[in-house]
Design brief:
The chain has helices spanning 39-59, 83-88, 98-108, 127-134, 148-155, 212-226, 251-267, 271-274, 284-295, 301-305, 320-327, 345-350, 367-376; strands at 4-6, 19-21, 30-34, 63-68, 71-77, 117-121, 138-143, 164-167, 176-181, 184-189, 232-237, 240-246, 277-278, 311-313, 333-337, 355-360, 380-383. The protein is α/β, with parallel strands linked by helices. Helix 12 links the parallel strand 15 and strand 16.
């Protein structure tokens, strides 16, 4: 694999001198099977790979991540899809392997954000998974291996220039990691924390019934939040992320963003959406954009006029009351925060998006108020004492 490789360019095309290498001059654990990567491709690949590796390690299921700009747009394990979700994710016409199911869920978390994503997969890429990827717009992929037919399908993307990385699954990075910022080198212990059963032991709420499914979803949310640019909050359900609030300066804005994305995810399963009749020439990305415009709270009939040409029959709008009635059916959602909640307003907002299970660091001077809010809403909350900032 060699000890260094040249990149197409750095963060931006005018940063022409770019390469990646091992400081200790050892061979890279990464091979480029196709295409020419950029700096951002590498950043997404090297953050998304440990995410899916840790999900597989923690839950013993195939895992996938859909990454954009060094944060996940979605992440999931291979929990089977029902027909409604398969239709919402635009994969109801395919036979899905467990790995393909994991990626369908990861991409389905936020299809608008996943346009042009970087894909990470925990297992050898099979033909079923490659067929999904082949027809989606994405920037590249990292995985531990590829079936021959799957690799050939992926190599055909982007006119043969689709970046394909193969990572050595046995590679263990150094315990110490370094980064140069403005000519100064920063050094720290690598964050190798992975949640285990003990992570969920300190239940501080009155409610104590932590099911296997809830623990699975809290694990997915926590491993995803670990690789999301801070401040960050993630929501998970059915083994997949359904909403991410990343890179916000205030905790409540993280929650509001994650919850609004989760609401949008759930509303995409509304009968008005699942029964939409698009014209035959409408592309997949155009369908996603049209649905997003349709579900905007501020969207008016005039704003929707520009999208009417997509439909065989223009769908009726869902009223605000109709949206709220539908969203009130969402339940069992798991939330993970990368640091403590400083105020109860985070919990007040989370409950409107079906959140029932919460894991956070704890340690705020207002922990008592936050726990009181959790008890009022009959949620279960775990205080871990572990912060998971990622920068």
């Amino acid at each position: 694999m060699g000890s260094s490789r040249v990149m197409r360019y750095g963060c931006n095309p005018h940063q022409t001198e770019a390469s990646f290498f091992m400081r200790n001059k050892k061979n890279l654990p990464l091979d480029i099977l196709n295409g020419s990567p950029s700096y951002i491709n590498l950043m997404d690949a090297l953050n998304s790979w440990p995410l899916v590796q840790e999900l597989k390690q923690a839950l013993h299921m195939p895992a996938a991540a859909s990454f954009k700009h060094v944060s996940p747009a979605g992440a999931a394990v291979g929990v089977p899809l029902n027909q409604d979700l398969a239709k919402s994710y635009l994969v109801d016409d395919l036979e899905l392997s467990p790995l393909a199911t994991a990626y369908a869920r990861a991409r389905g978390a936020d299809r608008l954000a996943s346009f042009g994503d970087w894909i990470a997969l925990s297992d050898t890429v099979d033909v079923s998974t490659a067929k999904i990827i082949q027809r989606e717009v994405s920037d590249g992929i990292i995985a531990p291996g590829y079936e021959t037919e799957a690799l050939n399908l992926l190599k055909s993307k982007k006119g043969g220039k689709y970046p394909i990385f193969q990572i050595d699954p046995e590679f263990i990075p150094n315990a110490i990691e370094c980064r140069d910022v403005f000519g100064i080198t920063l050094e720290q212990n690598r964050n190798n924390f992975v949640p285990d059963n003990n992570f969920f032991s300190n239940i501080v709420s009155d409610r104590k019934d932590l099911s296997i499914e809830a623990k699975r979803d809290l694990t997915v949310a926590t491993i995803a939040v670990k690789y999301t640019q801070s401040n960050s909050v993630t929501l998970a359900l059915e083994g997949q992320i359904i909403g991410i609030g990343a890179g916000q300066q205030s905790r409540v804005h993280c929650v509001r963003l994650a919850c609004s994305k989760a609401d949008n995810w759930y509303l995409r399963q509304h009968p008005n959406v699942t029964t939409m009749l698009f014209k035959k020439n409408v592309k997949r990305a155009e369908k996603v954009n049209a649905i997003d415009i349709y579900l905007q709270e501020e969207a008016t009939p005039n704003e929707l006029d520009a999208w009417n040409s997509n439909f065989e029959t223009v769908p009726d709008l869902i009223t605000l009351e109709g949206k709220r009635h539908f969203l009130d059916q969402m339940s069992g959602v798991a939330l993970s925060s990368d640091a403590f909640f400083p105020f109860r307003d985070n919990i007040d907002r989370a409950t409107r998006s079906g959140v029932e299970y919460v894991v956070q660091a704890g340690g705020s001077v207002r922990d008592t108020e936050v726990i009181q809010a959790v008890n009022e809403y009959k949620m279960l909350m775990i205080n871990t004492g572990i912060r998971l900032f990622h920068h």
